[in-house]
Amino acid sequence: MNRQITRLAVVAIVLLTALIVATTYWQAWAAPSLAERQDNALQRVAEFRIKRGRILAADGRTVLASNVKRRSNGQTVYLRRYPTRGLFAHVVGYSTQVRSRAGLEQALNDFLTGANTNLDTVLDTTFDKLRGATIEGNDVVLTLRPRAQRVAYEAMVGQCGSVVALEPATGRVLVMASVPTYDPNLVERNYGAIARRGTPCRAGAPLVNRATQGLYAPGSTFKVVTAAAALDSGRFELDSTFNDPGYCIEYGDRVNNYDTTRPFGTVNFLQAMQYSINSVFCNVGIRMTALPIIEYMERFGFYGLPPLDTPDGERKASGLYEGGKLFRPKDPNQVDPGRLAFGQERLGVTPLQMAMVAAAIANSGAVMRPQLVQRVQAPDGKRITRLRPDELNRAVSRKTAEDVTRMMEAVVQNGTGTAAQLPGVSVAGKTGTAETGVAGRNNAWFLAFAPSDKPRIAIAVVVENTNGTGGQVAAPIAKRVLQALMPAASNSVPSG
Amino acid sequence: MSARNRELVNLVVVGALMTLGFASVYIALSEQVSTTSLSAAGFFFALYLIAHLVARSTVPHADPYLLPMTALLTAIGLTEIYRLDADDAFRQGIWVVVGVALFASTLIVLRHDFRRLEAYRYLFGIGAIVLLALPALPGIGATVNGATLWVRAGPIQFQPGEFAKLMLIVFLAGYLQEKREVLAQGRLKDFGPLLMIWGGAMLVLVQTNDLGSALLYFGIFLAMLYVATGRVLFAALGAALFIGGAVVVHQFVPRVQERVSTWLDPWADPEDDGYQIIQSLYSIANGAFGGTGLGRGTFYNTPGGGNEGEPLIPFAKTDFIYSALAQELGLIGVSALLLVYMLFVLRGMRIALLAGDGFSKLLAAGLTFGFALQTFIIVGGIVRLIPLTGITLPFVSYGGSSLLANFVLVAGLMLVSNRANARAA
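C-alpha cells for the assembled complex are given below, as produced in the milestone run.
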C-alpha cells in the first residue's frame, strides 16, 4: 500500500499548495483592485486608523478639516471634524464611514492618508506600519482666503447662488462659495438634517457645489465672450458703429432689448458693452455666425470639464445644452447666432467658467488652470508639492484683452455696473440678468476684475431667483468680496 | 536526542511563540504590557507539558512533531480568537483543556494496542451513521447559518459530524483491510456496501444542506479505497458518481444552488448571498503581503457611523478565521500557517508508510487525508477555489466539537506511530 500512500500524500500537498497559490492571488495580485471597490467598507473603516492630514486655508492657520481621537474596540481611530462648518464645505467635502467621501477629502485622499507614492514618504509609512505606529497623512494648504470666503457668505445671506474669485496670473482660487451650504459635521450621523433643510431656491440641494456644478444661463455676461471673439477675429473694433432701434431683426422677427422704450440710436461697440445693448450684440452675432463664437468659447475653456482639484463628478462643463446634455453644434443652422451673442441661447455655464473668462481677460488673454492646492506638506513640515501656475490656453490676443478691458472699465465707471466701484481702484466688470422663465424673477450675474490696470483678482457672482438685476444685486456682492481681497481696502470691510 | 526530548524542545519553542503572540495582541489592543498575556501563555504551556508527560509514559516512540504542531495551531487559533473576542478565547481555552484531557485519555486507554478497535469496525460504522443522523432529529437538531449540522441539548450544542468523521475512518480502515483483496478484483457484487456509502454521502448532502461535509466524508472514503485497492479507476468512478450526484442534488436544493452561483460570482448579490465571501475577500486583501500585524486588523465598525462595534466580517472566529488571520498576518503569515498543515500531513503520511499492518496504514492515511481535505475545503471555499461551506479549520477555528475530535485524531496518529517506531527500534 505504500505506493498509494505516497501518491495520496502528493495529492494532499498539491491541494494545500493550491491554497497558498490562491491566497497569493488575493493578497498580492487582486488586493489593490479590491481595496478600491466602492463597497469595501472594511477598507474605509481601516483608513480611519490613519491620522488624516489637516486641510488648512491659505493663511496656513485657519483649520478647515482636523481630527478627533477616539478609542474603539481597543483601537485608536481618528474621526474628521470641520471647525469652519459650512464655510468651505463644498470644496473640502467630507470623509465619513457611512457616506464615503466628497470634495478634496475624496480627490486628495492619497495625500491626506499618506498613501501618495514618493520614495521618502513610502519608506516612512512602511517603517511606521512595521512599528505599529499611527500613520499620519500629509497636510494640505489651500489657496482659499478665509476672510474673503466669510465675506462672500455674509454678502449672500438669504440668497442662493455662488461666488468664485481667482488670481488671474496664477489661477489660484481665492474664494469659492456655494449658497446654501451645509455642515459637513452632520454628514456621518445626521445626513437627513442636511437633506431636509428647506432653501429658497428651486434646485435646493445644499450638497451641490454651485460654483462648479451649477449650470446657469449667463445672460449679458456672455457679451464678454462675444466681444472678445468679435474683436479678436479683426472684424470689429472698439469704435465700430452700430444703430440701435431698441431691437434687432432675426429670422424676420424682432429680438428686443432689455428696455425697448429707450433705443440708444447710433453707438460704438464700447458703448454697446457699457450699456449692455442686446440689439448690437445680436447683429454682431448674426455677422460673426455661431460657429466662430463657439470656437472662442472653447478657447476660454467651455465644452471641457474645467480642470480643478475637486473630483470630476463634482464639476460640469459649460456650453450649449440640449435636453440636459452638452451640445456642440457642427452646423450653423442649429444655433440662433443673435441670441447666442447676448447670452440667451440654450447656454448653461458654471460660475467657475465665467470667473475663468474674467481672469483670462485680466491676464492678457491667457487662461490659467484654476488651482485650489497651495502646497502639500508632510507631518514633519517637509514640503511635498507646491502650486505651479499652468497656462492652459491663449484665448485671445493681448490687444483684444486690453480692448475688452476698456469696455468692461466703462461698464463700471459709467454703465450698468457702477455699484461695483471701489474708491481709488479701477474695476472692470460686466453685469448680467438672465430671465428664469418666471416673470420678474432673474438670475443676476456680475463678472469683474480689479485693479483693471494691474489685475490681481477676477470674480464671478451669480444670485439665483432675484427680482433685481445683475447691476443691482450681484455687483454690490462682488464689490464686498473684492474689497476683502484687496489689502489696501481691507480696513473698510466689516469682519465676521 | 530521543523522540520525547525533541518533542519537549519543540513545545518550548511553541510556548515562546504563544507568549509573543499573546503579548503583541495585548499591546496592540491595550497599548500596555501586562502579565495577563504571560500567565495565559504560561498556563497554555503547562497544559501541553502535561500532554507531553502522558505521551512520554504511554507512547514513548511516537512522532515528536505532531504534538508541537498541534500546540502551535491551537495557539494561533487562540491568539486570533482572543484578538476578536476575549470572552470567546476564554471559552476556547477551556475546550483546549478538555481536548488535551481527551487526548491523554485516548492515549491511556489505547496504549497497549489500538488495533483492537478493528474488531469493533461495524459498531463504528453504525455509530457514524447515528451521529450523522442526529441533527436531523426533531427537537435536538439545529440549523446554523443554513446548514443542519448541530445537535442542541440544553445549554450544550455540538457538531456530531466531527466525531462521525473519525468513526467513519476507523470503520473504513477495518472494512477495507478485510475486503481489499476481493475489492481489488473488481467484482460488481462486492461493491454493494460501497454504493451504500455513496448513497449515505448523498443523503448527508441533502439532509444537512452542506456540500462541504458530504465532500469531506466522500473524499476520505475515496482516498482510503484507493490506498486499500491501488485502483485509480475506483477512485475516479467514485468521484464521477459524487459529481453526478451533486449535480442532481444541485438541481433540487436551492441552498446548494445558491452556494454554487455565489462561488461563481459573489458580486451578483453583494448585499445578501455574496456578502460573507466578499467581506472575507476584503479582509484578506487588506492584509496584503505583510499583514496589518496582530491586533491591528480591521474587524469592527468604528464610532462615527452610528454602527460602532458591528462586525465587518461575519463568522470571523469560526468559518472565516482564515480571513481574519490573512488580514493580520498577511500572505507571509498564512503561507507559514499552511506550511504547518503541510508538515502535519507529511508527518501523518510518514506514519502511514512506516506502519506495519494494513489496518494501521489505512487508519493513519485516512486520518491524515481527512485532516488535509478538511483544511482544503474550508480555506478553498474562502479563497474561492471551490464553493464555500461552513466547516472548521482544524485546531484554529472557534468551536469545541471540532477541537475535541481533532485532539482524538492526533492521539490516533501518535498511537499508530508509537507502534511502528517501537517495532523498528
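Chain B touches chain A through 67 residues (CB under 8 Å). The CA atoms of residues 364 and 413 of chain B lie 6 Å apart. Further analysis is deferred to the final report.
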